[in-house]
Each structure stands twice: as C-alpha cells, then as structure tokens.
Amino acid sequence: MNKYRFLIPIGFAVALAVGVMIGVKISPFAGAAKVYGGASQNNERLNEILGYISQRYVDSVNVDSIMDAFVSDYLNDPATIEELFKQLDPHSSYIPKEDLQGFNEDLDGNFDGIGIEFNIVDDTIMVVAAMSGGPSNKLGIQAGDKIISIDDSVVAGIGVASENVIKKLRGKKGTSVKVNIKRQGEKSLLPFTIIRDVIPVTSIDASFMLDAHTGFIRVNKFAEQTPIEFKEALALLVNEGMQNLILDLRANPGGYLTGAVSIADELLPGTPLIVYTNGRSVGRNDYYAGKNGLFEQGKVVVLINEYSASASEILAGALQDNKRATIVGRRSFGKGLVQQVYDLPDSSAIRLTVARYYTPNGRCIQRPYDKGVDAYYDDYMEILMNGGEIPDSLKSLKDVDWGIHPDISVPLDTTPENQTLNYLLNRSLIQQYCYSAYSANPGSFNKNKDMLAFAKTYQITPEMFNKFMQFVHTHDTEKGVTDAEINAAKAKVEIAIKAYFARQLWGDNGYYCTMSMIDDTLTKAINTIEKK
C-alpha cells in the first residue's frame, strides 16, 4: 500500500492526538455518581470521572451500569480506565499525568525530542504525525508508522506505557536514539537513527507565492497561536499581490475550535454562520464571522484528504457551505465530536466529548462508531488501505453522509513510479543523500537566490544522479528497487532530490514549493483557479 503523500510527509492526521477542544479546567463535580470503595486516591479520581461523564457527556448514559463491569479491576489496575472510555466514543479518553505535559506542549510550546506525535494502538506505538521540520520528519518517518523497537529494546506487544515511550524518545538536543519501524506495505523493518533536537510547535508549515497571483499556505494543526501565525502569513502574501489562495489542510488533525473559526473569519465576508455545536449539557453555541478579514474577495481553494480531521473539517465545511471555497482532494476523516479537557485531583485529566459540531448547513460530519471504538479505527485503516476510498467491505459507511466531500476528487497516485519514489523516501535514502551532498559543498547551492526559479529551472545533473544511484547501492541493504525502476521514476526522483536541496536553502517553503511540481492535488487546485 502506497501511503506516502506528496507534500504531506507528516500525515496520518487521525485526530487521535489533538481533537477539538473548547475550554479547559472546568470546576470539578462532586457526588455526581455513587461512591466506589478502594484506595482513597483512586476513589477520588474515579468519582470525579463519573461526575463529569454523568453531567457533561454529550449523550445521556447510565454511569453505574458502565462502571459496574470495570470498577473492581480499575481499583487494582488504573490502566483499565481506558476500557471505560471505550464504552463512550472514539475521542473521549483518559490522559495520565505523565502524558499531560506532552499533550499541552503539542498545542502550546517547544521541547527537545525526536518530533513525533504518537498513540498506543493494539499495544503498538503508532506515529500520528512527524512534526514539520523536526528530526523524524526530515528522515522521512511518516504518520501510520509503527515503532517496534527503541535502542534495541522491543516495545511492541509488551504492554508498554505512554510515559515509558516518552522517556525513551525524549532527550537532550544532539543525543541520538535508534528505532526500528514497521510501515504498511513494507515486508521488513525500517531502521532509523534520529538525532534529537529542539522541536518548535508551529502551525504554519509553509507560506509563499506559487506565482505572481496565487499564494499557498499549509496549516498543520490548530494550536493556540494559529490565528496569529495565519494572519501574519496571510498579510505577507496579500502585500505580495495575492489574488488567489490555496489553503492546504491535508493531514491536519485539528486542534482548537477557535483557530478554525478565526481563519474562516479572515476569508468570509459579512457575518455568516461558521459552525455551531450542540450538546446535552452545554446546549447550542453558534459561531459567526464578523470582523473585517484580510482576504474576503479573492479565489480560495482548500486541499483536504483522509487525514484531515476535526477543526480542519470545520474550516473546510464552513467555506464550502458558504460557497466561499472549492474543496479539492479526498473525503476527510469524519470527526464531528467536541471535547473538553477536565483536570483531575491527581494531576491527570480526561478529554470528554461534550457536544457535536455542525457545518452551517446542519451537517454533522462524524463517522459512525456504533460498532465500537476498536471497529471504528479498524474501519479507518481499511479506508487508508483503499487509497482513502470506502471499500466494498464497508458498504454501511457508504450509505451515511459523513466527513467533508471534496467538490473535486483527486485519487491517490498508485503508479509504479510513485511506489519507487515512496520506497526511496521511506528508507530516507533521498533525504540522507541530499543532506550529505549539500553539507559537502554548500557553496554550489547558495548562489541560488530565487526559490521559484530554483524549483522550475535547477537541474539535477547526470553526474549527481549517478552519485545518488551509487548512494542507493551502498545504503539500501534490502535491495528493494532495481536500477531500471529508479530510472523509470527518474523524473519524480529528481524533483524530490531537488526539493530536499531546496529545504536546505529556504526551509519548508523551499521543500513544498519544489514538491508542488509533482503534487497532483495541488496541480488540480491551480487548474481550478485558472478555470474560474
């Protein structure tokens, strides 16, 4: 299965790690459910959780009947609390105090580490996203990768806890960690040696002019500072003469609802409805545009895919329903549940679904989860295996309106040439070659001053391509591609090589600008603007 997405190396935005949050640190409830015996700290935490579920959960539930099956085990083994939340919905969860710092850092600050978001699924560490510009992202680690071992210690299938994973992967800048990764479609494990670095938590991966009139902004999440970062990027492009905007939300897992609302308000004229939420205890809340936005008149195209979730879907749905943008790509993830984070007495927290959100036309885009939480994610993996489309085996999902449907669909590229390129990128062969070649002779690249001109005119010489082939022969221990296959994919491989050189010169702007030349979805977006 070809899982690499051009222009989206940080993918797998399944909204597992972030979600939509509207408010934190609500005053705790006391005495909302019956008291269970046991250790005093467990007893206090348990009753706090039951109180929140009873009084704040989106649907009415019989808390006692849910807990009776788990309480005796829970008091002896707090880990079983995860089973409790599986009785609710796929996005409510318990956050141990050891994980809470990392949960907040992703949306609010910086830290040292390898730069991934992860979840433990079926007793295996699964990469949710490789943070843009971080060491894992640069090496080609992707969303959906499964970490099997860390520094020669097996971590899959042994009941590893999140706090232990964090301890193993985080560390001081400049130190290294070795991981072996299982990737969908690959027969053997992929080895990586990652040098830890400072991981900046920013929302905007790239912002630049594709041509004289069309700007491109890629948003990777909706964090606390996203509205400010987006407005700054938008203002710079408007000052450069932008008349059309391509907003890339592919692989964006969501985040703060306010970020999606703020960006929509920058693009929507007047005071239309952007989104509304509705829940049993919190009632209905409407969010309208109102301020004078920086880009209310020019053409807008929004890019989404099966990894776009939550706040990404809110923004895309608002612009689609208000006929402000054309949506291009593949059907989104389908997360229409709203979470609040509640602190618990022992410094842990819960993320609890309190409402559903709806697009202006009244669409609740939540994908059905009536078969249970495990089936919910198993079905999603089948969709991924089918290139983002619903397979025949999931006919029931075809009969339900969920997710954001693109106005213009772009299928996943599964050509042999693309598979060869993915093989080279999956093993970090292109990345490692480019870093070593650039480091050996940076002066030969620094004479290039214009990013757009570099993307269009810079040529990978035959000598350079031959050196790359030699590099592959030396470093590809699996010998998974032949010279003939690499030569057949030469056009795409050369652009990828050029893109990683561009990243050395202009950061992510250079990378995304160059990779746009082989990005089918972005090409379709540009053609859509020209036709309009």
Q: What's the quick description here?
A:
The chain is an alpha+beta fold.
Reported by name, the CATH topology of the largest domain is 2-enoyl-CoA Hydratase, Chain A, domain 1
Share of residues in helices: 25-40%
| Integer-rounded radius of gyration | 23 Å
The CATH superfamily label of the largest domain reads: 2-enoyl-CoA Hydratase, Chain A, domain 1
Query: In one word, what is the shape?
Result: globular
Stretches where pLDDT falls below 50 for ≥5 residues?
A: 1-39
The tally of strands reads: 20
Arithmetic mean of pLDDT:
85
Q: Describe the sheet with the most strands.
A: 6 strands, mixed
Terminal CA distance reads: 35 Å
CATH domain class name of the largest domain: Alpha Beta
Q: Structural class of the secondary elements?
A: alpha+beta
Number of domains: 3
